[in-house]
Write a structure and sequence with these properties.
The complex is a heterodimer of chains A (533) and B (326).
Chain A: E1 3-4, E2 56-61, H1 79-85, E3 90-92, E4 98-100, E5 103-110, E6 113-118, H2 132-143, E7 158-165, E8 168-173, H3 180-185, E9 210-216, E10 220-225, E11 239-244, H4 248-256, E12 262-265, H5 268-277, E13 281-285, E14 288-296, H6 306-315, H7 318-325, E15 331-332, H8 357-366, E16 373-381, H9 385-399, E17 403-410, H10 412-421, E18 427-429, H11 438-442, H12 450-455, H13 460-470, H14 475-492, E19 495-502, E20 505-509, E21 512-513, E22 530-531
Parallel strand pairs in A: 2-11, 16-17, 16-18
Antiparallel strand pairs in A: 1-5, 3-4, 5-6, 6-8, 7-8, 9-10, 10-11, 12-20, 13-20, 14-18, 14-19, 15-19, 21-22
Helix pairs in contact in A: 6-8, 13-14
Chain B: H1 12-41, H2 46-51, H3 58-67, H4 74-86, H5 100-136, H6 138-153, H7 156-170, H8 186-220, H9 223-230, H10 235-273, H11 278-288, H12 291-319
Helix pairs in contact in B: 1-12, 5-6, 5-8, 5-10, 6-8, 7-8, 7-10, 8-10, 9-10, 10-11, 10-12, 11-12
The chains are: A alpha+beta (533), B mainly alpha (326).
């Protein structure tokens, strides 16, 4: 039996850029390939300062949490809060490698068994001591189909959890599962709750560095430091206060006027002028962690014909979209963003990616549309200006190849309903939330799942490739499999991926020290954050 | 409602209120059905909105729907809601899981405060400019009407966004983004509401201004004003007791009607200025399909509009001696 330090090597070949001057992390160009994250943790000017204790960090948030029970909540907006309240057996470090957290390490006697040793003396916020029974309780709840946990799909390979003793717990999987450790390390997926949880939505109880204090919806969400936190000396802050602002302009004005110390925005075109105008604001775009896809209804004509799908791909000028919509702060995208195992870096060839309107016209003619084709409504998220802008640019690009669409910007909830049910007429775009593992992204195209079926997927070869990659524990081999899958998807044009970009762009005043942004867009490094006087 | 004077015993105002209350109940019941059914008829429910663009299985959505009773037929859901509402329980917010009544109370106060300040501003600005315009005519009239035209043409959310952007860039001392509750610091509270209220008041002040101007012009050409002047009353007395009092009726009507538009406008203004009022809450609730909250806010807004109309009717009686209620 070999004792591992859990570094299953999510190979993020990120290049780190040295600090060029105090406070300004990077003015980066994703286009130059500097894919950056976490540069602030590396040694640099100012790092020698001793952390100052006390103070309240004020974070501007654009969405309220919907539920605070990590085994129950579905909404991405809740993750900001659970990331500070709860911790799990594993976590991501600043380089996005997995490291032990509530566990001190684990053994892996075979491909389907993991035995975790827990830290001693960890207390929940209610004073209860953490034991292996709490870990078992948490995962029993998650894998219980009657409970309906959104986490269940992520731990679908988990057969059972067994308590060996108070500080040792065994996880038995049904089959080797590459995403297992990534999910364990991601908050809230692997977050541990006490075995007598009470109503965690109203009164969350975790083991994290901050304790829930109060919540006024739309106004403020307040946390105080956990004085019993298990990492010596942490956290430095006394309090963390989230303030809610819905409007993009308002959130930036609040940052400029120092009503908040830290926030993030979604639009690089909004973030970059702020950092240019105000050198004391530190800017860190995450890694390219999400893609912008165009989903097609594969069940019916014309998209059940691969020639039409390929024509649409050829008619799309992806580089122009990156330059215009993202002002260059992004890369051409395939199915998997660069920050994942086997994610594509946007360079080199992908089938049917070269912009070629003439070839697109020829393919359309071959498919029986010599005079061009009207694809009807192209549904996009009205609330996402990037999506709408990209749709408008593609509308023009496609027109040059004789393909016409009407852009239909729609409210988010009905759009999501159509997307899940596959009931949109022809074209629909919605960018995916961040996922800790590429498997979650690829699963959309698996014809064995609800989503793939609703979309009209029926490709046994692809399904086999997906299942094989999911069970591949060797990162290098898995990476190769993921590249092959992406090529296959591009070859068949099941889903048009346009570009990849950071999910969020973090901004903070340089009075905030010791903070590291993660491509996971989880602010777990608030635990090492401190404020200058 | 308004009829010629017929002296009768009892308090006519009380009778008016009683009749109106019955009507109000009927109106609110109707509004509650429409709001309930319409929201659920919209595609995309709470479970879908909560899950967002993530990979969750259908069973997760089903579990969420079961937890909140959304798997029941709409009429069952409605009857259950109505039964609880009649006992004063408006349910729990799906998002915050707290009782809707205790969530809405403080927000209603904030919106009422914002709307009240905006209404007072609109009356002050509109009344003054309308009166000046009508009395001074000439250049003043011309300038007022030009400014009114501009204020009406530029939507309030454009003004609000401009103020937010400029405040961030040029007036960081304004402290616009730290909403302070009234009880914590009354002055700071009112201070933080002034600019948002002004945005809200602009368009309404135009309506008030134009109506005041028209009413004053019309009344001042009437015989009784001429008689008042002819018998040598001081101009101030003519203005106060004769002119204004008679010109007031249409202005009251218009202001009352505008309360509804102030409530509607507060949705945008509160969202832009991050003021924790009902409008912002309604906006969020619709996006997240938080049905109990939407239902409660729509009902409350309907009740306010009905109530303000009642106040307007009562105000007629005070302003216009010819109006009596039986």
């Amino acid at each position: 039996m070999q004792r591992n330090t859990p570094t299953p090597g999510l190979p993020l070949d990120a290049e780190y850029r040295a600090l060029t001057r105090r406070g300004v992390l990077l003015r980066l160009g994703l286009t130059t390939g500097a894919a950056l994250l976490a540069p602030g943790m590396l040694a640099g000017p100012g790092r020698a300062d001793t952390p100052r204790r006390g103070g309240a960090l004020r974070i501007g948030a654009d969405a309220d949490p919907i539920g605070l029970d990590p085994t129950k909540l579905a909404a991405f907006s809740s993750f900001d809060f659970t990331a500070l309240i709860y911790t799990g057996l594993l976590r991501w470090n600043a380089e996005m490698k997995i490291e032990p957290d509530l566990a001190t390490g684990f053994e892996q006697p075979d491909d389907t068994t993991y035995i975790f040793t827990l830290r001693q003396g960890v207390k929940f916020h209610n004073g209860q001591v953490l034991t292996a029974h709490d870990v078992k309780f948490t995962f029993d709840r998650i894998i219980n189909p009657d409970f309906g946990s959104p986490r269940r799909v992520q731990f679908i390979d988990l057969r059972e959890v067994t308590v060996i003793d108070d500080h040792t717990v065994r996880f038995d999987l049904k089959q080797p599962s590459a995403p297992f450790l990534a999910y364990m390390a991601t908050n809230p997926n692997g977050a541990i709750i006490p075995r007598e949880p009470g109503d965690l939505d109203a009164a969350p109880v975790g083991t994290g560095p901050f304790v829930f204090e109060s919540y006024q919806p739309n106004v403020e969400f307040t946390l105080t430091a956990n004085r019993d936190y298990y990492e010596e000396g942490l956290p430095y802050l006394d309090r963390v206060v989230f303030r809610f602002y819905r409007d993009n302009a308002t959130i930036l004005s609040a940052l400029r006027t120092k009503a908040i110390d830290m926030t993030w925005v979604r639009d690089p075109r909004v973030a970059s002028p702020v950092t240019r105008a105000m050198p004391d604001i530190v800017s860190a775009p995450g890694q390219t962690s999400r893609t912008f896809p165009v989903w097609m209804n594969l069940k019916a004509p014309p998209f059940n014909d691969v020639r039409v799908r390929r024509a649409l791909s050829l008619a799309t000028n992806r580089t122009e979209c990156v330059q215009t919509v993202l002002a260059g702060f992004g890369k051409v995208g395939a199915m998997i963003p660069e920050s994942h195992v086997g994610g594509w870096d946007g360079t080199g060839e992908m089938p049917y990616y070269a912009h070629d309107p003439a070839a697109a016209k020829a393919l359309l003619a071959e498919a029986g549309y010599p005079g061009g084709i009207d694809l009807g409504d192209y549904i996009v998220v009205a609330a996402n200006p990037l999506d709408v802008a990209c749709a408008q640019i593609m509308q023009q690009q496609w027109a040059a190849a004789g393909i016409t669409v009407r852009i239909n910007p729609m409210e988010t909830a009905p759009l999501l309903a159509m997307w899940r049910e596959g009931s949109f007429p022809t074209l629909l775009s919605v960018a995916l939330a961040w996922n800790p593992d590429a498997d979650a992204i690829l699963s959309y195209l698996n014809s064995g799942g609800d989503f793939g079926r609703n979309l009209g997927m029926a490709d046994a070869e692809l399904d086999a490739m997906l299942n094989s990659a999911r069970s591949e524990l060797d990162p290098a081999a898995r990476s190769d499999k993921h590249m092959a899958i992406q090529r296959h998807i591009a070859e068949q044009a099941y889903c048009l991926q346009i570009y990849q970009y950071p999910l969020r762009w973090e901004l903070w005043w340089n009075s905030v020290q010791g903070y590291v942004p993660l491509s996971a867009n989880i602010r777990s490094f608030v635990r090492t954050t401190w404020l200058t006087a | 409602m308004a009829t010629a004077r017929t002296p009768r015993s009892g308090s006519p105002i009380l009778r008016l209120v009683a009749v109106r209350l019955v009507w109000t109940a009927a109106i609110l019941l109707g509004v509650s059905v429409v709001a309930f059914v319409l929201m659920r008829a919209l595609p995309g429910d709470f479970a879908i909105a909560a899950a967002g663009a993530q990979f969750v299985q259908a069973e997760v959505l089903e579990a969420i729907r079961r937890e909140f009773g959304l798997d029941q037929p709409v009429w069952v859901q409605y009857l259950r809601w109505l039964g609880e509402a009649l006992q004063g329980d408006l349910g729990r917010s799906f998002v915050t899981r707290r009782p809707v009544t205790s969530e809405i109370g403080p927000r209603f106060v904030v919106t009422a405060q914002l709307t009240l300040i905006a209404a007072l501003m609109a009356l002050a600005i509109g009344g003054t400019t309308g009166l000046l315009s009508a009395r001074l005519r000439g250049q003043t009239d011309w300038v007022v009407r030009l400014v009114n035209g501009l204020s009406l043409a530029v939507p309030n959310f454009v003004v609000a966004t401009l103020i937010v952007l400029m405040a961030g860039l040029y007036f960081p001392f304004l402290n616009l983004f730290n909403y302070t509750p009234f009880l914590a610091d009354p002055l700071a509270n009112i201070g933080s509401l002034l600019l948002p209220a002004l945005c809200l008041a602009l368009a309404v002040s135009v309506t008030v201004s134009e109506n005041t101007r028209a009413a004053v012009l019309e009344v001042s050409s009437q015989d009784f004003v001429m008689v008042a002047r002819a018998k040598g009353l001081r101009p101030r007395r003519v203005l106060g007791s004769y002119l204004l009092r008679n010109a007031l009726t249409p202005v009251i009507t218009v202001t009352g009607l505008q309360v509804a538009s102030l409530l509607g406008g507060s949705i945008l203004i509160e969202t832009i200025f991050a003021i924790p009022g009902m409008g912002q809450y309604l906006f969020d609730s619709i996006t997240s399909r938080d049905y109990p909250v939407i239902q409660a806010i729509v009902l409350l807004a309907a009740a306010v509009v009905v109530f303000v109309n009642l106040l307007v009717d009562i105000a007629y009686a005070r302003a216009d001696a010819r109006v009596r209620y039986e």
